[in-house]
Amino acid sequence: MRLSKYLFVLTLFLYSCSGSESSYCITAFDCAEGEICRNGECIPGTAGDSGNSGDSGNIGDSGNSGNSGNSGNSGDSGNSGDSGDSGDSGDSSDDDETVVNPDNTYSDNETDYETTDITEDEISDIDADESIDETTIDDDPPPCVPGTFTFEYTGAEQTWTVPSGTGTYTAEVWGAQGGQGSADGIAQGALGGYAKGTLSVTSGQILYVYVGQGNVYSTTTLVSAFNGGGAGRGNSDTNTRGAGGGASDIRIDGNALANRVIVAGGGGGSSGTSYIGGAGGGVSGSDGTGGLPGTGGTQTAGGISAFEAEMTHGSLGQGGGLTEGSTFTLAGGGGGYYGGGGGLGAGGGSGYIGGVTEGTMQNGVNSGNGKVVITRTCP
After folding, report:
1. To the nearest 10°, the Cα dihedral for 324, 325, 330, 331?
2. 369-379 per-position pLDDT tens digit
3. Cβ atoms 86, 52 nearer than 8 A
4. Phi, psi dihedral angles at 311 (to 5 degrees)
């Protein structure tokens, strides 16, 4: 009995479904010809306008009516349905198409994206810009190394290059001693002067160094000393005459006399124990002693020689001395900023500190050859 009841209910349900004027659909293809699918139900199309191919939806030229739902894309556009070839397809579909335009943008109907054309050269430039520069630039100066640089007499110009790095350079120069006036060495030539000061130099700069020759004397021939010592001549192996001692100096930015920045004067030559030369300077060289002496050089002029007819006077960088062909036997003046004059006791040359700072000078402190010392101190 119960089973019969169930079968009766089922028969009524099926009959109601088959007798319905609509049926369930997903698309118009699930419906009979002339029907359209709307909200999951197949319903009849309107007059002459088939759902799948009509010119419009339910009414014709209305965008949202006619072939709506999932397939009402009639006409040339999807939802407007102006004049489509077919309801389902028309000229467009529900699927949104990506459109690329000349402005390098595309749209997905929600967001506009912009693209940029990048050439290979631009990519290379970007790579180059983003590359890491491995070159390390060290702006720190080289370390300062203290030191002392000593220059002895060589008979020629010497050069020295200022080292790299910071530092203070102090120069000390000693003039050479004048030549002796006796073979036994009793009548010594006058001592050379001394000067000291701070140099103004830079790394890599070239300095020209001149070291005076000392204790040069003559028996019978005319002799002079390196770097300005005036010429003298003796008359026998036992009756000697001294040449003036050479000056010592440093020159910067060239090797001419005008480039000297510091000078120590050389001592004057002697002629026996009674005619001793004057000491080298200092601000001024000392005058010779005894009869017929030469005078010392100064900051502005050379010393005067005792025998003008036979000798030259002192001059810039040069001591006065005998000329070639002279028959006199006399001593030469010391070299210096300005040289001393010649005579029996010749004058000493002057010193100079006009090209340095904190300069000082002394007369008559050095024997033998001259010397130059440059000392580097660090902060």
Report:
1. 10
2. 999 999 999 98
3. yes
4. -135, 155
